[in-house]
Amino acid sequence: MSNALGQTIHAPGGALRRSAAERAANWLGDRGTLVTGVALAAIVVLFSLIGPYLYTASPYAIHGHHALEAPSAAFPLGTDQIGRDELARLIAGGYATLIVSIPAAVLTFLLGITYGLAAALSPSWFDKVLMRVLDAILALPGLVVLIFFSALFTPGTFELILLLGLTSWPGLARIVRNEAIAQRNRDFILATRQFGGGTWYIARAHILRVMAPILVVNATFLVGDSVLALSGLSFLGLGLQPPYTSWGGLLQTGLNLIALDPWWMILPAGLMIFLSIMAANLIGQGLLARFGAAR
């Protein structure tokens, strides 16, 4: 009798605890990817943008007596082959990487949306012309195009933003065009036309609003793609030029000295590139899962 009474008394509390635990597990399962991505992005951004104010050593100062020195109290990430502080250079490289990659992703985003909407909302013959042009651009290998134009001139920050932005938009343009075509004959779009809504009003007020989840997800992926493309160019010596550097340039410098085993010149830069790309992809996947669940 007492056992039954005890079960009767304690069961509701246990059920409530189990229910709370299940809700917490579901919450973490749904948001874990997104939260992890945001946390990694915060680490990368704070390191690159706040780092120069916390670690004030110059990335350009040469300490001739400490060339190629392993990490120590004086140089937390060691020095390069001419004695420059690797931690200061890693922070400066992160700043340079972000101020190129993020604006380049924004430019890619705007160009892709504009081109895709222009194709979807134009007369069918013009849509076909734009799509054939897009097919021709997509047929070109992106890295080869980047290398070709980078080799024509010495790119600075502004030139790299333009180069990355002007060569990365076709994939997004195709996504936007296909989604806009799928939306343009829906009832509320046709009703808006009947009430006198213009093409670009419909695009701005209705189509873009419906496509917002897709656009947000792709915007996060574009940032990761820009970081990867810039790192690849810098690794090949076609990105930011000395004395400025980026993570790809630091990685290339370290690998040139691989016979001397300067792991402190290779691992930190490679890790920051990896974390940046991972953060962008996790945020994108998390947002995709959240928007998919909302539907």
Describe this entry's structure for a reader.
The protein is an all-alpha fold. Helix content is about 75%, strand content about 0%. The chain contains 10 helices and no strands. Helix 2 packs antiparallel against helix 8. The model is unreliable at about 1-10 (pLDDT under 50).
Which properties best describe this structure?
single chain; 295 residues; mainly alpha; 10 helices; 0% strand; disordered N terminus
Unreliable residue stretches: 1-11
Sheet with most strands: none
**Assembly state:** single chain
Radius of gyration: 25 Å
Question: What value does the average pLDDT take?
Answer: 84
- Total of DSSP H or I helical runs spanning 4+ residues: 10
Q: List the secondary-structure elements in sequence, H or E.
A: HHHHHHHHHH
Say how many strands there are.
Answer: 0
How far is it from the N-terminal to the C-terminal residue, by CA?
50 Å
Q: What global shape is seen?
A: elongated
Strand content: under 5%
Helical content class:
over 70%
Structural class: mainly alpha
